[in-house]
Amino acid sequence: MIRVIVADDHAIVRDGISSLLSTEPDIEVVAEATNGKEAVKLVERHQPDIVLMDLMMPEMDGVEATRAIRASATDTQVLVLTSFAAEDRLLPALRAGAQGYLLKQSGADELIGAILQVHSGGSSLDPAVTGMVLQELARESKPRGPTEALTNRELEVLELIAKGMSNHQIADSLVISDATVRNHVSSILGKLQVESRTQAALYALREGLATLEDSEP
Fold first, then answer.
1. pLDDT by residue (tens digit) across 161-198?
2. Which domain holds residue 149?
3. Nearest to 126 by CA among 106, 146, 141
4. Per residue in 114-130, pLDDT tens?
5. What is the number of domains present in the chain?
6. Distance in angstroms (rounded) separating the CA atoms of residues 162 and 131
7. How far apart are CA 124 and CA 113, in angstroms?
8. Beta strands 50-53 and 2-7: pairing type?
9. CA angle, residues 83, 49, 66, in degrees to nearest 5
10. Secondary-structure percent of the chain, ordered helix, strand, coil, rounded to 5
């Protein structure tokens, strides 16, 4: 069972998302938050698998709430669900540690798919914003980390991360254990100086280690 908290300051949105997710036998909405501060408190209380996080909320916005959640000891992942595709919202959310970014105009199947992907250890970016993120990263003069520092095996793992594979899928593909994959992923994030798999995947795309054609939304 995938335990989810829905964080959005609009009641009609929360109700709609909760009703949609209630039809999925493997997903349970354990709480709803009306602002970022409440979302952080509810995560501490319920320890959900995923928070569906709106960005524009009172008291504490979604970016700050995401940063607070990811800075804690929790294993909770954050999937941003917002109406905003602008760079000034997108990049800060990813850098705060969000594992996915989905626009509210997406369909039900896209939302369910993004939840499953993030829960399995992967990342999920709305196709409408992927190109924008790559363009912005390409304009940054300072690299996020030396690719040369990665071992050949870590480069293989990074390429599969960029293809949207979960740890278990990577383990099957490379015929290694899940624990070994987790160790490689942790090493990759440290060497590239990034906070999440999403950022590592974007780094791989920017450096030409993978292409958009290889990557799954």
1. 988 889 999 999 999 999 999 999 999 988 888 888 88
2. 139-206
3. 106
4. 999 899 888 788 877 77
5. 2
6. 14
7. 9
8. parallel
9. 45
10. 50, 15, 35
